[in-house]
Amino acid sequence: VQLVESGGGLVQPGGSLTISCATSGFTFSNYFMAWYRQAPGKAREFVASISVSDQTAYSNSVKGRFAISRDNAENTMYLQMNSLNPEDTAIYYCYCIGVDSWGQGTQVTVSS
C-alpha cells in the first residue's frame, strides 16, 4: 500500500492551492479516504473526508474554503484549498480508512 502526497508549497494569504494523493496497492474506489494536517507543535487534526459514494465531510475550520474530491480512474484524491490563511500552515497527510495507511505528507505554508 502506498499513498504519496504532492502539490504542497508556499502560497500567500488569500491564495489557493490544490494538493494530491496518489495511491497504489489497494482498490482505491472501495475505500473511505481522508485528509489530515499537523501544524508545528500541534496534534494531527482531521481536515476532510470522502466516502466511496463521494459523500464529503469537513472540519469547521475549513468548511466552505476547502473541497475534497477523488478520481477513482486515477486512484487519486485531491484537496482544493481556497482563501488560505496562515493558520492553514501545516503538513498535510492523506489517510486510507480501513487500510489504516498514511502518506508521508506534503508541506503547505501560507505566508506573505
Structural commentary:
This protein has 112 residues and is mostly beta strands. Helices cover 0% and strands 51% of the residues. The strands form 2 sheets. Strands 2, 4, 5, 6, 9, 10 and 11 form a 7-stranded mixed β-sheet that branches. Strands 1-3-8-7 form a 4-stranded antiparallel β-sheet, with no helix packed on it. The mean pLDDT is 97.
Largest sheet: 7 strands, mixed
Number of strands: 11
User: Structural class given helices, strands, pairing?
Assistant: mainly beta
State the helical fraction.
Answer: under 10%
Mean of residue pLDDT values: 97
Question: What's the total helix number?
Answer: 0
Strand content range: over 45%
Secondary-structure element order, as H and E?
Answer: EEEEEEEEEEE
Query: Uncertain runs with pLDDT below 50, 5 residues or more?
Result: none
What is the straight-line distance between the termini? 37 Å
Provide a quick synopsis of the model.
By secondary structure, the chain is mostly beta strands. The protein is built from no helices and eleven strands.
